[in-house]
Amino acid sequence: MIDTHCHIDDPQYAEDLATFLATQKSDGVEAIFVPGVDATSVTDVLRVCDAHSNYLYPALGLHPENVKEDWREQLATIKAAVDKSFASTPYTLHPTLRHSRLIAIGEIGLDYHWDITYKNEQQYAMREQMRWAQHYDLPVMIHSRDAVEDTLMILREFPSVRGV
User: Fold this and answer.
1) Residue 84 scores a pLDDT above 60
2) What does the DSSP 8-state code read for residue 94?
């Protein structure tokens, strides 16, 4: 069993991380994928995954709730980290990911639940990150809340991209 989405870089796990991971392993979880949510999470996601590189696998992306006025800068920072990952020494679970330490692009998508101020920007950011996934042949971790129709529309634009 693989946990495809756990924000284990969150400070709430820090104190008892070893215990949490031991419990997950004993319960049959073979690996955990850790998604990023913005530019500031890149360092924490990579740090925790590096510390447990045979068990935690990083994904990087801009969560739709974090698409705000600085979304272009956020995307640029995350994209630089994605690009850098492909220049790093690889570790992977799956042979198709042989050139990257990343397991996916994520957490990306659309969220119209709380605020639609940046609805168009969310769509642009999702498309841009789908392009990254397509370019690097990585799956995506999709977040969609109150945006099913638009999410599916964008996913259909990228038929070769797979994900959860």
Assistant:
1) yes
2) S
